[in-house]
Amino acid sequence: MENKQLIEELYFCEAACKQFLKEYIAEREKKKLKRCMMLAQECADICRVTAVVVERKSENSDEFLKLCAKICNNCAGECEKYNIDYCQKCAQVCSNCYEMCTRHIMEIKL
């Protein structure tokens, strides 16, 4: 897999999580989505940092990718619990990013 595709996916996931946070601010029942909000913020942050690390071709890229995959998976799992459009969108993008990070980690090991 090309790093360019991975980097684009990481930035796309960051943007989706930030969009979730914008939607969350307008949500009336914030309390029920609090964990989603916290995970989306962490996911946006780690995706951005991981993209930068991968762009630099850091020797630590695989460690960042592992953490990023874990946080993306957690965020996707939490967001998919809610039948709200912006939660479902965030869950799908995070799930895709998780899969891409995981595939890239496996390719590094080969």
Tell me roughly what share of residues is in helical segments. Answer: over 70%
Q: What is the number of helical segments per DSSP (H or I, 4+ residues)?
A: 4
Question: What's the Cα radius of gyration?
Answer: 14 Å
Quaternary state, please?
Answer: single chain
Strand content: under 5%
Number of strands: 0
How far from one another are the termini? 12 Å
Give the rounded overall mean pLDDT: 93
Judged by helices, strands and strand pairing, the structural class is: mainly alpha
What does the largest sheet look like?
Answer: none
Q: How many structural domains does the protein architecture include? A: 1
Shape from CA axes? elongated
Provide the succession of SSEs: HHHH
Task: Give a structural overview.
With 110 residues, the chain is mainly α. The protein has one domain: Up-down Bundle (Substrate Binding Domain Of Dnak, Chain:A, Domain 2), CATH 1.20.1270.360. Helices cover 82% and strands 0% of the residues. The protein is built from four helices and no strands. It has helices at 3-26, 34-55, 61-79, 85-109. α3 runs antiparallel to α4. The longest helix is centred in the C-terminal third of the chain and has 25 residues, at 85-109. The chain is elongated.
